[in-house]
Fold:
Amino acid sequence: MDRPIRVLVAKPGLDGHDRGAKVIARALRDAGMEVIYTGLRQTPEQIAEAAIQEDVDVVALSILSGAHNTLFPKITKLLKERGADDILVIGGGIIPEEDMPFLKENGIAEIFTPGTPTSAVIEYIKQHVNRAV
Amino acid sequence: MVDKEELEKIKRKKEEWEVNQRQKLLTKFPERKKDFKTSSGIEIKEIYTPYDISDIDYLEKIGFPGEYPYTRGVQPTMYRGKFWTMRQYAGFGTAEESNKRFKYLLSQGQTGLSVAFDLPTQIGYDSDHPMAEGEVGKVGVAIDSLYDMEILFDGIPLDKVSTSMTINAPAAILLAMYIAVAEKQGVTPDKLNGTIQNDILKEYVARGTYIFPTGPSMRLITNIFEYCSKYVPKWNTISISGYHIREAGATAVQEVAFTLANGIAYVEAAIKAGLDVDEFAPRLSFFFNAHNDLFEEVAKFRAARRMWAKIMKERFNAKDPRSMMMRFHTQTAGSTLTAQQPDNNIVRVTIQALAAVLGGTQSLHTNSRDEALALPTEDSARIALRTQQIIAYESGACETPDPLAGSYYVEKLTDEIEKRAFEYIKKIDELGGAARAIDLGYIQKEIQESAYRYQKEIESGERVIVGLNKFQIEEEPPKGLLKVDPAVEELQKQKIAKVKEMRNNASVKKTLEALKKAAEGDDNLMPWILDAVREYATLGEITDVLRSVFGEYQQQIIL
Structure:
């Protein structure tokens, strides 16, 4: 039997808005995934470290402060440096459309904005997760 | 309110109506849905009559505006006297840019300022701290030292405006900076009007900008209460906030319950620190959310006022009526705004703002239509302010106090919210009070459950959000959103370097050492912080001193 998909839900940056992160974490768990939530104010280094230590398949980043262009690419860069760029990295929060091409060029597979049903995130992860079966 | 005989008649008549009218129609046309409920899950009946509120004693539970239990408002004339303060939360980028936005808002008829600080400022990091990277000036203005604060209020006479500052963990430092700017303008602290949020308990459960552990945080708060009661008597020393609790997913009932439970914790802490209740309680203020469920929201505001009056009188033996008056600010609900068809948000904000006005708010912030996408543009911020002005001048909602009083439905809901919120408070008391309930994760868990339920209701279609899960359209991505210039971070770093070069570094060191010593003892810290601020010690330097003594709060992670 497949082992469940493992997801790290992470809050980079300083904003304390974790309603979305927690709702997503719950929904992914209800969908049968194993979910680890980092808590607030995680540095890119802490997130990359946790992703590798926990051997996750997916990192789901949530940010609402506007610091995504600075922090998201740092995380994907750190994962790549440590040979963990097979981890699917997705992001969510208040992220303007015009920032998306830049984030996608920098290794963020998909961005989900307010109003996205959790089912869309679950479906996306199932279809795009890279892992050895 | 109606005599017994009359009530019996109404009851009989209602039973007849049920059989002859309603049931008959229902066989042909069933109702839209099986259950009718408020957003808090309170069941809504098929009709409300005098019978539903026959147990509510008018004089005891409703009364008159300006009189205990303040259900109908805290002033006798309410908006017949003057409108609420129209106070739009603003601030971004540098102090220079925010100063311009403040002057613009004042020129457009806004009557009070409300300062948004960026996250590094709220968490006590200078703009050149590694944790601040990418965050400087993003969600508010960056303040690193008194120098920035002087620029922020340049040309704004502090004895003429009232200023609300959304600052919590480092509230003492920002208040000290405000006092110091006033001094430079020749304004003494007793002339200052305004509010600091200073509500740390809700930071632990909902908003996240905590720094220190619970104990030292409560000490800083009571230090501020004491200092202001002596030197800044018109200042609102705390804004006990349900807003963020609601944004995090709480229901209306939970918003009232958890906010008042936090309020009780602050009053208890201050009494324990030796303050007399009537010395500080008149300066306590509150901050609520206004959601879409119009009648439940109005009932919520009325219930909250009545409950606080009762708590202060019966639980804390307050004697001064001002200690029993719940004065509050309201902001419309950011979490109800949709990124889809953003212009629809103007209508949502209108309903929410109307709820706040019908609920008797003392000041109001109306959100801008584009806030699910970015910080508001100047255009959007103006429409939001105009929404308040239209309600004030055109709607007729302000011509008599508490116009929904006596509505069978609203009075019943007010009563029901009060009952349910008091049950929660009882539960929290049994756990050992709000601070303990937070340490146990009880309050966080309750809020998360509600948030998850709400999301599931949207996804199942049980809860309709127009433009989101019904009446959708294909849309172009919105244009012209506000963007904060990333150069702000560099600018702030340069300003810090300049300040550190120009100030007397020996004096800074001396005041910081004195502050450390005071923090290790039991002194009121306000005068020591003020000394350091006057010497241009930075926010980060002052916070670091306190961190070294108090330590930092470790977040409870609950899923």
Observations:
- The beta strands of chain B are 85-86, 89-90, 113-115, 162-165, 193-196, 235-236, 238-241, 284-290, 328-332, 363-365.
- Chain B touches chain A through 46 residues (CB under 8 Å).
- Residues 494-550 of chain B form one domain.
